[in-house]
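Re: that chain you flagged

S.,

Sorry for the slow reply, it's been a week of failed gels. I finally had a moment to sit down with the sequence you sent. For the record, here it is as I used it:
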Amino acid sequence: MGMPYPVPHPVHRRFHAVRHVPLPPEPGLPPRHAARLPERHPTKLRKSVETSHELRICAGGTFSTIHAGHEYFLGMAFALGGEVEIGLTSDSFASTKGHEVPPFAERKKSLEAFLSEMGWHATITEINDAYGFALEDRFDTIVVSEETLPSAKEINGERAALGLKPLEVVAVPIIKNKSGEKITSSG
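Prediction finished late last night. Pasting the structure tokens below so you have them in one place:
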């Protein structure tokens, strides 16, 4: 049997470092529990290593229905300790998901309510593609799921082509229910 947590692995230099975070201790986290786990995570960062500014973190998603996987994902973004900006997929971008997705305004309101309930503050920005605002120079770190890690690598490739520094990539594991199936909004 493998390690109980994902082990960081080297990636091509062009894509910068990828930091994998551990899975929560038990599958099928109850609601509102997953988001508290990152507070105990040992890799909290307060400042960017290269500058004295607060770490600037970007993350994105559709957030159709907030579930334990979203809670853990966002909890990891906030556990890094910096400014967080969340890219929320537009209706046209969300329509490519292959299942019905609530309208943008409804998803944004739900996400704002969840962030407020958790005591977290973030800027929520509508995004129309997988790059969203991650090609802007103002970010240090991108938080992605292990499923969307290839998109983060593409983003860093595009940033390199634009002459921008690569983002540190924090890959959050997919949360599974007690049956071992991925928790999703679509089923």
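What I noticed first: The beta strands are 18-20, 56-61, 83-89, 123-127, 141-145, 168-172.

Talk soon,
D.
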